[in-house]
Specification:
Blueprint lengths: L1 E3 L5 H12 L4 E5 L2 H4 L8 E5 L9 H4 L4 E4 L7 H15 L3 E5 L14 H14 L4 E7 L10 H7 L1 E4 L11 H13 L6 E5 L7 H12 L4 E4 L2 H10 L4 H16 L8 H5 L7 H7 L1 H4 L5
Parallel strand pairs: 1-2, 1-4, 2-3, 4-5, 5-6, 6-8, 7-9
Helix pairs in contact: 1-7, 4-5, 8-12, 9-10
């Protein structure tokens, strides 16, 4: 049996959909019956309610599981949450954990400055010494994060970010989900780490230009200061700890503005990397302000 934790989130849901498309049975771990409902129409998906931080709730989820893909929310409890799950999985006899991790694509990026990268590395270390087989997936920035800019795209025809002329190589989460499915369900990936990016290094002006082409109207990139973005996020109700983490990430990106491109694992697995224009066209209705 295959298990996907954090299944109701964006990444987890897309990975579950890969199992459904490939007609491979999978178990989805969610934290509530309400979240389980989203998979009710998915054939071959068994949903189990449990909490990764509470091992006593995981007996059913981990029963007869040989391979698990581990995802949890990026918050201050991520290390405790995932390390607790690793320990519970080992006790239950899980053979391998594929950790959904993260990486920055900037050349010279210092992970010690960005708290979530530090957390991922701490969890990876814990997993590697657990005695179970492991695989780390380290995607770069997701293309989907630009959907957060829809409010200003719709209202002002602009993207407001403190990124100047730096280049990033975002990856489509749907491509990451395809990698995750293949790595989880096929042998030969034990004790390996896979970093992956999109196929292009783009400035924010490039991102805005591609969204413009997708929606059929001019979208501009407007540079703002990190302080203005910090204030805007807090005013929008984003938790202060997450805003501070984004501040750290932005600071490091500004120090190392040239992004590298690494699509090796996608090509090895026969997955054609999605370009940002293709992503924008696929999500054009969302960039125009449609709701899901």
């Amino acid at each position: 049996m295959f298990l996907v934790t954090g299944a109701s989130g964006m990444s987890g849901t897309l990975i579950i959909e890969e199992f459904v498309r490939n007609r491979v049975p999978v178990r989805a771990l969610v934290r509530s019956k309400e979240k389980a409902a989203q998979f009710s129409q998915f054939e071959g998906v068994e949903t189990v309610v449990g909490d990764m931080l509470r091992p006593e709730t995981l007996d059913i989820a981990l029963a007869e599981v040989h391979h698990a893909l581990m995802i949890s929310s990026p918050n201050e409890l991520m290390v405790e949450t995932q390390c607790s799950f690793v320990a519970a999985a080992k006790r239950a006899g899980v053979r391998r954990i594929v950790k959904f991790s993260g990486a920055e694509s900037g050349i010279g990026f210092d992970p010690s400055k960005f708290r979530f990268t530090r957390m991922h590395e701490e969890i990876e270390d814990y997993l590697e010494i657990s005695g179970m087989a492991w695989t780390h997936l380290r995607p770069s920035q997701f293309m989907q994060v630009y959907l957060r800019e829809v409010p200003t795209i719709v209202k002002r025809g602009a993207i407001y970010l403190p990124l100047g002329d730096i280049k990033l190589s975002p990856i489509d989460v749907e491509d990451v989900a395809k990698v995750a499915f293949q790595v989880l369900t096929s042998p030969g990936h034990e004790e390996k780490s896979y970093e992956m990016t999109g196929p292009e290094a783009l400035t924010m002006h490039d991102v805005a230009e591609r969204i413009s082409r997708a929606v059929g109207q001019s979208i501009e990139y407007a540079h703002i200061s990190p302080e203005d973005r910090h204030a805007a996020l807090l005013n929008a109700g984003v938790p202060a700890s997450f805003v501070e983490a984004l501040d750290e990430q932005t600071e490091e990106r500004r120090k190392h503005p040239e992004s590298r491109i690494d699509t090796g694992i996608l090509k090895t697995l026969g997955i054609r990397p999605t370009t940002f224009l293709e992503f924008a066209i696929r999500n054009a209705s969302l960039f125009r302000g449609a709701t899901v």
